[in-house]
Specification:
Elements lengths: L2 H22 L6 H22 L10 H6 L14 H13 L9 H23 L1
Helix pairs in contact: 1-2, 1-5, 2-4, 2-5, 4-5
Amino acid sequence: MNEVIEEWVRKAEGDYRTALREMAVTEGPNYDAICFHAQQCIEKLVKAALIAQGIVPPKSHDLPTLCQMLPPRSVAPAEALAIEDLRYLTRAAVAFRYPGESAERGEAEDAVEICTRLREVLLNIIKD
């Protein structure tokens, strides 16, 4: 793994730890931030996986679009990066960042669960 990929992974892991720490807060957790950091973790890991495959990632935050750029052989089984999960994280990161919508505990829990599952898939793709 080269230094650029390692840096993407380090930054992704920082987002993951931030989401988990905030989820563990008992007084006043920021569910919006949990959703945001869960999406950011996966976005950075997808970009690391793209770079590992020799693909320059675009400046996009849309997880389904980014994952479609991964070569099919790098994602097995295909449902490991389910489009519904990718859309959920993308929406959660954007919708809850601004006034008008706020994440609830259940949405934050879903975001962390999806992030945890996809993180494992993507780390395996990056390692290969």
